[in-house]
Q: What sequence folds into this?
């Protein structure tokens, strides 16, 4: 079966898979829950019933936050890889996560009682700054922009920004604060965090779908894109805005969750091809499933205690990156 | 054996015990230039010796500047011991909570304060016995938790840190989660649902990340279901270092806080305060 031919079936299949995964996530955990409890929670919720409480107030918001994080990061990765025609582009390499972490840390120094909304704003500004810097460095180098230069610029800027974060940490003795922000975890989320992430994810996703046709053209090559009448600069600006919306709220709530944005677009591309409307929708579902699965494993791996989500995605993602490099030769040079 | 009685002691560990024996070290272990919060006043004339991320690798240059004639240390590597020994005679002792009585007597013997150490322990044990009776009559088998917050982590101590005084010395009942995790247990939001503590002492690291976690927990619906929260028996500690150390000054302060919270009008609290004032005067 050629990739892309039956994409709606593939999408539907993974939607069902994600739904099944969510049902499992609602039943797994230290509080004993029977299958019947999962149903009665939604029709006859009782606050006195501990199983109902665990499902409604703890497991459901957590499953939703995990899904939103995974979906947002995966779509963000698809857009970045499409905009830059760089298969290694992702929130970390493009300077978004390091920039967000640095600015949030500085915010924490200046504003001791930092609210979550301010954190998201700071994360947005930091991610924006990091992203702009990477683009500027890549474009400003002699000889013009190439995906290789972008990869190098991303690595260098991320290293420098991370260096500044470490210097700030040491100068202001903020090791414990850094522990708070850098260990990607969603162990203590409630409905509050769902409502904090949801609007940003929805706006980012709608924006991504609006520019998806343009992204398909752009991924073929800038010249081809201009030839068929797309406005390249407009797509790049809107795409960047979508990436910022999708990434900043996630980093503010969960810290850096690595590899989802890098890994999922490649898997999705293998299943439905390189048409961006399909790619974005499938990546969203796959990203949500991967993160939900990682979170579930992190909850049950060590009886009762938890491994941070960011660590789990890294454990899965790092071998995938090695596979990507070894099994599928990546061309970073600009296509003619 | 030491050739002469030391007068310039550098305490890379056990400054609590030294001060309890009436000995002021000329230098003591610090983190980012700060001594443990409950000892700050008593150590105001001492030189802080920073330890790299608390892994017992001291700032050797500051240490040499102090010209110590004895260095006390705990849990150091052989390499660090060799380097410290080049500066001054170095004595390494275990810092575990189980042997703190023996450690106090050993330090007393080493520094010619054995009688003081014996008297100190005798008086402490007497207060402890009385406090145990007072607390059991007030809360019986009610479960007591020592709940710590650092970073995004929530943790209850079992038979470690402050838990040694709570459960091993005072005989209070720990939360049932501790039955399967003896030293302590990292809590997720869902396992807080299983926290069956009737009394909770909360210690938040004094940094903004931990404070943010505490604020988040206060608004989380799961916190409202903990029995201690429902009955209003949550006690937030303003300082926490004495709940993490095994020195006897730390234990006295802990004991005073526990008694003030759970049995404020008991006899042992008055007696403890009287004794603490007497020890401080000495």
A:
């Amino acid at each position: 079966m050629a990739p892309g031919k039956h994409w709606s079936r593939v999408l539907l299949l993974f939607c069902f898979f994600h739904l099944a995964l969510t049902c499992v996530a609602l039943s797994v955990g230290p509080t004993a829950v029977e299958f019947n409890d999962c149903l009665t929670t939604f029709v006859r919720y009782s606050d006195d019933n501990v199983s109902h409480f665990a499902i409604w107030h703890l497991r459901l918001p957590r499953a939703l936050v995990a899904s939103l994080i995974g979906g947002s990061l995966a779509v963000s990765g698809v857009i970045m890889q499409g905009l830059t025609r760089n298969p290694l582009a992702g929130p970390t390499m493009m300077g978004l996560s390091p920039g967000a972490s640095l600015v949030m840390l500085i915010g924490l120094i200046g504003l001791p009682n930092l609210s979550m909304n301010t954190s998201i704003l700071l994360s947005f500004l930091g991610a924006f700054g990091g992203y702009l810097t990477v683009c500027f460095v890549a474009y400003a180098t002699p000889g013009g922009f190439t995906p290789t230069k972008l990869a190098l610029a991303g690595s260098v800027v991320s290293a420098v920004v991370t260096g500044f974060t470490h210097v700030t940490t040491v100068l202001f003795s903020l090791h414990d604060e850094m522990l708070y922000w850098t260990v990607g975890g969603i162990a203590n989320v409630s409905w509050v965090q769902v409502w904090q992430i949801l609007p940003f994810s929805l706006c980012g996703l709608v924006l991504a779908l609006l520019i998806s046709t343009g992204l398909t053209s752009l991924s073929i090559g800038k010249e081809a894109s201009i030839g068929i009448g797309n406005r390249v600069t407009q797509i790049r600006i809107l795409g960047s805005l979508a990436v910022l919306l999708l990434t900043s709220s996630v980093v503010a709530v969960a810290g850096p969750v690595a590899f989802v944005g890098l890994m999922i677009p490649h898997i999705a591309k293998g299943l439905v091809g390189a048409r961006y409307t399909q790619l974005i929708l499938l990546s969203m579902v796959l990203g949500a499933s991967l993160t939900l699965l990682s979170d579930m494993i992190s909850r049950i791996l060590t009886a009762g205690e938890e491994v941070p989500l960011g660590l789990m995605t890294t454990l899965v993602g790092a071998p995938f990156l090695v596979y990507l490099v070894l099994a599928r030769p990546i061309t970073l040079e600009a296509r003619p | 054996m030491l050739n002469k009685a030391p007068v310039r002691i550098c305490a890379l560990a056990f400054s609590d015990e030294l001060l309890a024996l009436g000995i002021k070290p000329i230098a003591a272990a610090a983190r980012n230039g700060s001594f443990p919060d409950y000892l700050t006043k008593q150590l105001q004339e001492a030189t802080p010796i920073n330890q790299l991320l608390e892994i017992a690798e001291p700032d050797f240059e500051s240490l040499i500047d102090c010209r110590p004639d004895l260095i006390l240390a705990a849990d150091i590597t052989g390499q660090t011991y060799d380097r410290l020994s080049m500066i001054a005679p170095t004595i390494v002792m275990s810092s575990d909570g189980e042997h703190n009585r023996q450690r106090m007597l050993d330090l007393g013997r080493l520094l010619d304060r054995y009688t003081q150490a014996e008297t100190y322990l005798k008086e402490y044990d007497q207060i402890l016995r009385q406090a145990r009776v007072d607390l059991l009559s007030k809360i019986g088998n009610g479960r007591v938790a020592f709940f710590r917050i650092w970073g995004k982590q929530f943790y209850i101590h079992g038979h470690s840190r402050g838990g040694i005084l709570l459960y091993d010395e005072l005989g209070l009942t720990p939360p049932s989660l501790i039955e399967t995790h003896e030293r302590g247990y990292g809590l997720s939001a869902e396992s807080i649902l299983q926290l069956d503590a009737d009394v909770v002492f909360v210690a938040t690291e004094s940094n903004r990340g931990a404070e943010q976690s505490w604020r988040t927990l206060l608004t989380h619906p799961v916190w409202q279901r903990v029995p201690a929260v429902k009955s209003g028996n949550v006690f937030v500690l303003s300082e926490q270092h004495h709940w993490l150390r095994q020195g006897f000054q730390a234990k006295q302060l802990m004991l005073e806080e526990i008694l003030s919270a759970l049995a404020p009008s008991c006899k042992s609290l008055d007696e403890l305060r009287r004794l603490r004032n007497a020890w401080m005067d000495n």
Observations:
- The interface with chain B takes residues 29-31, 50, 53-54, 57-59, 62, 108, 112, 114, 173-181, 183, 185, 187-190, 192, 299, 304-306 of chain A (CB under 8 Å).
- The CA atoms of residues 47 and 53 of chain A lie 6 Å apart.
- Residues 50-84 of chain A form the longest helix (35 residues).
